[in-house]
């Protein structure tokens, strides 16, 4: 045990850690029956080979070279999603989702407001779990889905343009937390958990004392329409979730089976549970009309509380957090958080459990003890699991097979290695590790604190995303990456899975409504520059081609509602224009061949300059024009 200060942070010295690593290294060697002996030529050859293999897994990506993986990182309470290059850990792009962004105009433009729909007025978000759509358990490069814990939303990012294209507020729940996708046969559904318990209905008649009507719901969302297909009411709350590789079961952790409303009540029991949902039975109940509705909306809510045929509750040690499916499709792993263990649930045994042939605990096939604060588990392609230990600030590598043998009573060491990380890891993720294509090359540990790892930057510090090479027998830390608030979770997708567009296509649905509006106004967006007035509503249509706007001036009247529609005629890759109306809080991006629009009130009389705020040309500074607001 090492010392913990009051944040639980690890104070052990580097020396101790090095000693421990060496010790583990030695034990591993001894276990393999190795003895000290002079090196033979064969041994040298093997070593050289190993070194060559290691070089192939180098994190160094030289200038001009491309990364092997796209990383999708959530931006936590920044509300965005980031695209990283892995293994370089270079940040390639930010995708605004639940946040508001002045560079792109996300949350400000009419196109983004339409996508945000009923939550267009909300400017904040807390994104946790980005996960890509799949076909037959493999990434299909189509969408990335992400939850918003802050405002109970789910959004979808289109991977052809890397922009958010759908967003919904999930009714009947508060705080959407765990989110994953159906893996097999394809991502028909996105699954996510309502974490916080609320009265059903939550109409102001509920009380703070009597919590008997409080519930959490499991949410099943249609991935194409982005509408809630159905919800399942459960006992206890819901935290993280994942799907199997058979298209049959979803599982979620519950840390508040107590239904406590205070910290001490929430952690009172020694056991909480994993709830497993049968998709087939849920769909049958839905078809049979066995549901209720709440809060005056039409979303069907199935009853999956204890005793229901739709669910099974598997007791597991104290306050489990992460829920991860092994890429061979055999196991759900629930991570103990307040227990030093993880619980391995055999997916093969779930049919028997649902047919009442076995007891819930009989589905557990291993419960290895790994260290303090297990939060999330990732997998390689060799049967190993990697679990973050939040309190120990370590990653434990363990063999799933050996953990199962040990659970049966065999004397076998399932622990392979513990690697110190800095400091306090939440999620970790392996390259393609949530799919059948798990390749055992890279592991990322998303550490919540960086402490002394970087130059001090004031009281607020970056987090530390650490890259670990897992291609060899030992995990090797190869990169420290400071990140801003707060990548919760990430995925790494091989670049062969994605083919993003270089230009926009004119029929893109993201600006289709704006194009339709122009058609109604008799405006050809690719050629016309026109001001159209309807009462006090003025629409200003203009083109842009570096380094000019189609209109270098226009006039409106004080108090007019002005909509500026800009169509970027440039066909050159990477030539994005912007439109900023000074002193009006108006800014947006117009990508090559795209149309963007933004609406504001002309509430300041006089000359107002607008300018291009995305660098596009040597005469970018001169790309500006005047709006005269007549008093
Ligand atoms: S959670 S640190 Cu929001 Cu994914 Cu586990
Ligand atoms: Cu157009 Cu800068």
TrEMBL record:
It comes from the Bacteria. Residues 533-631 form the Cytochrome oxidase subunit II copper A binding domain. Cu cation Z1 binds at residues 321, 376. Binds 6 Cu cations per subunit. Each subunit contains 2 copper centers; Cu(A) (binuclear) and Cu(Z) (tetranuclear). Cu(Z) is thought to be the site of nitrous oxide reduction. Pfam families: nos_propeller, nos_propeller_2. InterPro entries: CcO_II-like_C (IPR002429), Copper_CuA (IPR001505), Cupredoxin (IPR008972), N2O_reductase_N (IPR011045), N2OR_C (IPR034205), NO_Rdtase (IPR023644), Nos_propeller (IPR041114), NOS_propeller_2 (IPR041142). Its EC number is 1.7.2.4. Pathway: Nitrogen metabolism; nitrate reduction (denitrification); dinitrogen from nitrate: step 4/4. Ca(2+) 1 binds at residues 448, 463. Its cofactor is Cu cation; Ca(2+). PROSITE patterns: COX2 (PS00078), COX2_CUA (PS50857), TAT (PS51318). Cu cation Z3 binds at residues 129, 427. Cu cation A1 binds at residues 577, 612, 616, 623. In the C-terminal section; belongs to the cytochrome c oxidase subunit 2 family. PANTHER family: CYTOCHROME C OXIDASE SUBUNIT II (PTHR42838), NITROUS-OXIDE REDUCTASE (PTHR42838:SF2). Nitrous-oxide reductase is part of a bacterial respiratory system which is activated under anaerobic conditions in the presence of nitrate or nitrous oxide. This is Nitrous-oxide reductase. It comes from Shewanella salipaludis. The lineage of its organism: Bacteria, Pseudomonadati, Pseudomonadota, Gammaproteobacteria, Alteromonadales. The gene is nosZ.
């Amino acid at each position: 045990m090492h010392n913990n200060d009051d944040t639980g942070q690890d104070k052990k010295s580097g020396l101790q850690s090095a000693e421990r690593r060496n010790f583990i290294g030695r034990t591993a060697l001894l276990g393999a029956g190795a003895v000290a002996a002079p090196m033979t030529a064969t041994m040298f050859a093997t070593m050289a080979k190993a070194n060559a293999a290691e070089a192939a897994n180098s994190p160094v990506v030289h200038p001009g070279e491309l990364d092997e993986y796209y990383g999708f990182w959530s931006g936590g309470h920044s509300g965005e999603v980031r695209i990283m290059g892995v293994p370089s850990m270079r940040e390639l792009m930010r995708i605004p989702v639940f946040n508001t962004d002045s560079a792109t105009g996300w949350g400000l433009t009419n196109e983004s407001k339409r996508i945000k729909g009923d939550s267009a007025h909300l400017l904040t978000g807390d994104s946790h779990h980005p996960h890509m759509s799949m076909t037959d358990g493999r990434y299909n490069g189509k969408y990335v889905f992400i939850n918003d814990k802050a405002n109970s939303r789910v959004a979808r990012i289109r991977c052809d343009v890397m922009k958010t294209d759908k967003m919904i507020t999930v009714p009947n729940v508060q705080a959407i937390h765990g989110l994953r996708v159906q893996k097999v046969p394809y991502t028909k559904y996105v699954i996510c958990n309502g974490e916080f318990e609320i009265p059903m209905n939550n109409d102001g008649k509920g009380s703070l004392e009597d919590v008997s009507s409080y519930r959490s719901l499991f949410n099943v969302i249609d991935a194409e329409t982005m509408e809630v297909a159905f919800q399942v009411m459960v006992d206890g709350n819901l935290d993280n979730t994942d799907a199997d590789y058979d298209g049959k079961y979803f599982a979620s952790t519950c840390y508040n089976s107590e239904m406590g409303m205070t910290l001490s009540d929430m952690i009172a029991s020694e056991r909480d549970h994993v709830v497993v949902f049968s998709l087939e039975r849920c769909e049958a109940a839905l078809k049979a009309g066995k549901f209720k509705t709440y809060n005056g909306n039409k979303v069907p809510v199935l009853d999956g509380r204890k005793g229901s045929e739709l669910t099974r509750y598997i007791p597991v040690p104290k306050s489990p957090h992460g829920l991860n499916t092994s890429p061979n499709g055999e196991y759900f792993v629930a991570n103990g958080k307040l227990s030093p263990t993880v619980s391995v649930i055999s997916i093969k045994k779930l049919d028997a459990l649902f047919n009442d042939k076995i007891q819930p605990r009989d589905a557990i096939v291993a419960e290895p003890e790994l260290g303090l604060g297990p939060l999330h588990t990732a997998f390689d392609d060799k049967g190993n699991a990697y679990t973050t230990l939040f309190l120990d600030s370590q990653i434990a590598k363990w063999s799933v097979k050996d953990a199962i043998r040990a659970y049966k009573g065999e004397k076998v060491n399932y622990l392979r290695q513990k690697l110190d990380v800095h400091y306090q890891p939440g999620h970790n993720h392996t390259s393609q590790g949530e799919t059948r294509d798990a390749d055992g090359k890279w592991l990322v540990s998303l550490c919540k604190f960086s402490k002394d790892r970087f130059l001090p930057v004031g009281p607020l510090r970056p987090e530390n995303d650490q890259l670990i090479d897992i291609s060899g027998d030992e995990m090797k830390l190869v990169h420290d990456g400071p990140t801003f608030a707060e990548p919760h979770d990430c995925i790494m997708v091989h670049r062969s899975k994605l083919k993003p567009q270089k230009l926009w296509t004119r029929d893109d649905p993201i600006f289709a409504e704006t194009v339709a509006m122009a058609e109604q106004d008799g405006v050809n967006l690719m050629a016309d520059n026109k001001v159209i007035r309807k009462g006090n509503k003025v629409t200003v249509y203009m083109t842009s081609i570096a380094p000019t706007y189609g209109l270098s001036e226009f006039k409106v009247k004080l108090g007019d509602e002005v909509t500026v529609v800009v169509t970027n005629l440039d066909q050159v890759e990477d030539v994005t224009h912007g439109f900023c109306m000074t002193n009006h809080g108006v800014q947006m991006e117009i990508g090559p061949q795209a149309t963007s629009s933004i609406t504001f009130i002309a509430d300041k009389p006089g000359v107002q300059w607008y300018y291009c705020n995305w660098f596009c040309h040597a005469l970018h500074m001169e790309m500006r024009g005047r709006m005269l607001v007549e008093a």
